[in-house]
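[Automated response] Your request has been received and processed.

Submitted sequence:
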Amino acid sequence: MDYPDIINGIFELAGGLFIFRSILKLNKDKEVKGVHWVHAAFFAFWGYWNLFYYPYLGQWISFIGGLGVVTANTVWLGQMIYYLRREKTKEIDYCKEFSKYMRDK
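Generated structure:
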């Protein structure tokens, strides 16, 4: 264990905590605004790579911090997909209702 590993592990852990705040915000808002799911997906996949890469380098503190980042990004990505699909379903339902309204008129 060396200082670069400790510092990187702290950054990884802090990143996971900041992403957790985004999880809480999305859970409260129940609507995806201002961020695209691709960003979370990219960093989640990079996080999974780091779970292999850090032990390969012997950077165990970074690995522990990386667990937090990859977990938070995966949960956040799952939330985004859920709420985006839910919003799309609402749009489809609205279109069906509008079409029905126009037919009945």
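Summary generated for your ticket: The two ends are 74 Å apart (CA to CA). The helical segments are 3-29, 37-57, 60-104.
If you did not submit this request, please reply to this message.
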